[in-house]
Amino acid sequence: MTRQKVLDQYFMDARHKLIDVAAFLDRVERAEGDADFRLDAFRDAMKRLGDDGNDRAQDVLMAFSDPTAEPIAEAPGKGACGAWPGENA
Question: I want to staple 39 with a disulfide (CB 3.0 to 4.6 A). Which of 1, 23, 35, 60 is the partner?
């Protein structure tokens, strides 16, 4: 597929998603209270969008992922929270 065809097919959807991310960040900034590790992971993932190369999707996914190789004995909660809280969680 040519670059022009990719733009024709996917641009409006990507534009919509980017505006949605901007609105999410506006809501977070206007809200009271402290943020947690999820916002840090989100900001780290956004930085990776500016990287060169063809692995942005993987890099963004890894910004949210647990990099450890050893399994934990017991899950700390009942469900996923979307980001790894880090070593000190």
Answer: 35
